[in-house]
Amino acid sequence: MRPIHRKALKRAVETCGGVEAVAVALQESTRQVREWLAGEGYVSNDVFLRIVDLLLEKDPAYQAGAAAAYRPEPRQDEKPGREDRT
Predict the structure, then answer these.
(1) What one-character DSSP code corresponds to residue 78?
(2) Nearest residue to 18 (alpha-carbon basis) of 64, 71, 58, 77
(3) Which has the closest alpha carbon to 59: 26, 1, 17, 6?
(4) What is the pTM of this model?
(5) For 9-68, how does the pLDDT look when each residue is reduced to its tens digit (9 = 90+)?
(6) DSSP letters spanning 4-71
(7) b or e along 22-41 (b: 16 or more beta carbons within 10 Å of the residue's beta carbon)?
(8) CB 6, CB 15: distance < 8 Å
(9) At what angle do helices 3-16 and 45-58 cross, to 10 degrees?
(10) 27 torsion bin: left (phi>0), alpha (psi -120 to 50), beta (else)
């Protein structure tokens, strides 16, 4: 298991209130989630993306980070200090 997968899964368990809640949200067995937490097995990219979606939905820190990461840059004509030269 990749360290980032395990870290995200641990955060999801903390955020969602336990292994059972995460298992339900991911549509996986609690046994499988516990195995992943123990570093056993393989988390597919599909499952990892569902974990990330869960964090984005439930964890305010991830929501704030996602909002900052995807904030579009101002267009050239909207940048402060630029005067209209028509």
Answers:
(1) G
(2) 58
(3) 17
(4) 0.70
(5) 999 999 999 999 999 999 999 999 999 999 999 999 999 999 999 998 887 776 666 556
(6) HHHHHHHHHHHHHTSHHHHHHHHT--HHHHHHHHTT-S---HHHHHHHHHHHHHH-HHHHHHHHHHTP
(7) bbebbebeeebbeebeeeee
(8) no
(9) 40
(10) left
> Rounded to whole angstroms, how far apart are CA atoms 23 and 76?
46
Tokens of 39: 């570093």
3-class SS of residue 77:
helix
Half-sphere exposure of residue 79: CA atoms within 13 angstroms, side-chain side: 4
Question: Residue for token digits 């305010």?
Answer: 60
Please state, in angstroms and rounded to a whole number, the distance separating the CA atoms of residues 2 and 62.
Answer: 20
